[in-house]
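To start, an entry.
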Amino acid sequence: MSDTDEDQNGQKPKGVFSTLMADGDWMYTKGEYKKAIISYTTALNLKPDDKTCFVGRSKCYLKMGQSESALQDAEASLKEDKTFFEGLYQKAEALYYMGEFEFALVFYHRGQKLRPQIQEFRLGIQKAQESIENSVGSPSSVKLKIKGDLSFLQKDEERAQPIAAIEHLKNKKKQQTQKTPKSEKTAKQLLGEFYSDKKYLENLLKDEDLVKGKTKGGERLQDVIQGCLTYLDSCTEFWTQDKPLCAQEKERKLRQEKCSKPRHGAPSEPAQFLLKSLEDIDAELTSGNAEGSLKKAEDVMKIVQGWSEREVPNKKELLGSLHSCIGNALMDLGDMDKALDHHQKDLELAEQCKLPNAMSRALDNIGRVYAQVGHFTQAIEFWEKNIPLAHGGLEKTWLFHEIGWCYLELNHHKEARDYGVRSVAAADEIADEKWQINANVLVAQSELKLGNFESCVSHFERALALAKLQDDDSAVNVIQKALDEAKQHLPQ
C-alpha cells in the first residue's frame, strides 16, 4: 500500500498542511487572492479546525469583496476559542464591510478589551461609530428586529475582561447595578467617543421587542445590554476618581483656544481626519477596490501637501504613509512602475525623518515589486537593506528565505545556500516547524546545485523528519522523492 493511499480505516492523509499554509500566505502577500484561497481551502481539508487558516482565507475573501464568505470563515475561527483576537478582528471587519456597523462595533470593542495594545481595534471602533452616525443618525430612529445570530452579545466568560485599572470596580460591585453619573454632561466629558455607544445602548433598552429576546446561550438580551451599560458606568466612575473635573475643564478650555485659531483650510482636527482617511484608504484596498483606494489616497495627498509643518509637525511621515498606500493600490492595479516610484518616495521620506519602521515598510514593498516582475537582483538589494530593520524571528525567517529564493532563481547557489542556512537558524530559534521545513528544503536544493550531495541529503532528511512529525503525508511524499533522487548522486 503506497503512502498516498488511504489507511485501513479509510482515513485520508493530512497532507502538507504547513506548506499549503505557506503558499497561501505568500500568494496573499503577492495579491493573488484566488490562488491563496485554493491553498487555504486545501489546507482546511487536511486540518478542518485550524483557526489561523480560516483567518487567512477570510482575509482573501474580503480582498475580493466576498464579505459573507469572509464572515463565515471568521466565525469558524472562533468556534473553539471565542477569545481568538485575530478571529474577532476578522469578524468585525467582515461585518463592517457588510454594512452591519453596529454588530462590527461590538466585536471591535471585544477585541480591544482583549488586546488593548493592538491599534487596529481602536481604529475599527472609530470607523464603525462614524459609519453608524453617517448611515442611520440617532439610534432611536432605528427599529431593530430579532433575527440571525445574536450570540455575539453573550455576557459570560467569552466576554473580554476589562482593563486592569478598573478590575477592582467590577469585582467589588459584581452583583450590583452601577449608578449612572449624576450629570450627563460629566458622563459625556469622561466617556468621550464612547458616550455615543452609551446612548445607543440606552435606546436599545427602550425597544421592548428586542429586550425580550435571548441569545443562543439562553441569556436575556436585556441583561446583556444592561451589563454593557454597567461597564461604561464603571469606567466613568473610575475616570472621575482618576482625573478631577476641574483638570478636565481646564483641558477643554485649552482645546477650545487652540481650535479657535485659523488653520488655513485644514480640518479642525487634522489627526482625526488623517486617521479616518488612512482607514478609508486601507478599507477600499482590502475590499478589492484598488481604484477607489488610489483615488482617496491621491485626494488626501493633495490636502496634506497644502498644510504647513506648523499645522502638522509630522507632515513628512504622513506623506510617506500616503505614498505607501498609493504604491500598494498601484501594485494591485498592475502598474508596477508607478508603484515603485511611490514606494521609493516613501523610503526617501522615511530616511529623512529617520523612521526605522517606515524604512522597513518601504524596503519590503520595493523588494516585493521587483520580485513580482522578476527583477530578483533588485529585490535582493532592497531586502538585504531591510535585514537590520527586521523585528522578530518570524520576519527574519521569511526575509532570509525570500532572499535565498531570489538567489536560487538567479542560479547563485552559494548565496542561496547561505541565506537558507540563516533562515533555518531563525526558524529553529522560534521553533516554527512550517518554516523549518521550507528553509531546510531551500538549503537542500541549493546544496544539490552546488554538488554538495551529502549536505543536500542531510537537509532533505531533516525536512522529511519534520514533515513526519507534523503528519504531513503529502509533504513526506514530495520530500522523500527529492531525497531519493539526491541519494542517487552519493558515491556507491
User: Anything to note?
Assistant: The domain at 390-492 is CATH 1.25.40.10 (Serine Threonine Protein Phosphatase 5, Tetratricopeptide repeat). The chain is about 70% helix and 0% strand. The chain has four domains: 13-137, 169-261, 273-373, 390-492.
